[in-house]
Amino acid sequence: MKHSAQDLEKLRHSAAHLLAHAVSELFSETLLTIGPPTAEGFFYDFLPLKNFKDEDLPPLEARMHEISKRALPLTHTQIPKDEARKLFAGNPFKLELIDMIPDATVGIARQGDFIDLCKGGHVENTKDIKHFKLFSISGSYWRANRDGQALQRITGTAFFSEQDFKDYEQRREDALRYDHRRLGKELDLFSFHDEGAGFPFFHPKGKKIINILTQFIRTKLERDGYQEISTPIMLSEDLWKRSGHYAHYKDNMYFCHKDEQTYAVKPMNCPGSTLLFSERPRSYRELPMRLADFGTLHRFELSGVLHGLFRVRAFSQDDAHIFCTQDQIEQEVLSAVRMIYEVLKKFDFTRIVVGVSTRPANALGSDEYWQKATDALKDALTKENIPFEIYEGEGAFYGPKIEFRIEDTMGRMWQCSTVQVDFFMPENFDLSYITSEGIKARPVMIHRAIYGSFERFFGILLEHYKGNLPFWLAPVQVKVLTITDEQKEYARNLAQELKTQGIRVEIDESSDPISGQIKSAQLQRVPWMLVLGKKEVANNTITLRYVDGKQEFGLTLEQILEKAKELS
Ligand SMILES: [Zn+2]
Ligand SMILES: [Zn+2]
Question: Does 246 score more than 90 pLDDT?
């Protein structure tokens, strides 16, 4: 039987009740607070008499199974608030929740003699909750308020079948094993230091990968008529007041004071590009003007949310701003969408989910503007035969956007690429161009990025490929290994030859046995090993060993180069 996302939410919501039921039986003095389902499972926050310990989880799980087997029907009824207050007398948390509910009645869930305050949405019977696990105990606060009552959170998950549960465990294991922070260390790619929390340091191999990603995008930009610019990292505070960032975003910005002037470090490239555009009068002949800016951005994030390369305080984007006429929107969007697909496919992302976010309640600009821009986005996708969802009212206040979410090899979705139409900034900065009729007109600005942030995309790729970057992206593509030191000279000549051909190659200069050299190249996830022994030297050939252990013997240098070219 196929279960929907709502079914799974019901199951997990019910599993949270089951956990609370088990807690109330085993630790009867515990106060229950709230226990919602989450994207990954569920949790329940408690105030126990004595803190829970990890050893408490197995007996709790066992009791949950036992209650499940009691086959208690789950019922849900609405009762008057006064009655509910009596039921939960002695639990200040539940009483507070009851007071917060605006209606005259509140919902009560029952299974056997266990009751909980609840909006409803359950499985029918406790016996339907079979495949679950409790993961951890952590600290939390009542209503997520740091000054509020400290609580203990028990986190778990539930699934409809044992197979779903096993798949989930496998993905969890993979996610830990291939965590990009761990791979970054193992492969010597990047690091973080206390001297700048959230500011990544890229090591030579990590920087190499960033450069390859940059170069890859640059060739596409060049082909599609973009021009690369660079704009200052700091600009006067006044600019950011004009752009609206100061009002909406100042808590996330860094400031710098000098000579009684206040500068803001840029959190986005847009205002810089806008200044450059407005630097002199523009003609319709110059449009569309596509300006790419890979400038480093700084955004202050609370230290608690920093997470490897996924959430940093300094990063750069493959950002571009297209200034065009209203009639050019569709064509420009179409071209951006094509590039996005072309780029994402190169990284073996097979599933891409697309959504168009439409006019929100607080939108700026006329209905006509919005209609035209939203239609342009939809028409571009339709022309490319790309199915899309509509995210009603989820556009930015300054214009509609297309969002692309990609699925990685561990089944996780990531939002990276966006195309956004913006009427607001051209208005705000009084941008104009002269039409073919000699009239002054307002251009439209399109913001678009493909990777999004280089740093985050790099982290996603590392996990998506589980550390085994494809040949074209690997910082070291080829490692030359020798059976004995006698083949070192042959190895050096070969490496030089490959380098000349643009291949990233290293020689293992150690005198380790060949098995050790192979092991070390494998640990470094080098896609190709060229193994050289007496026979190879005598015949002027090469043995190619792939990272998965497959081998090809007796290859010539030309054959190696040919193969490398195919993978580039
Ligand atoms: Zn419930
Ligand atoms: Zn922008």
Answer: no
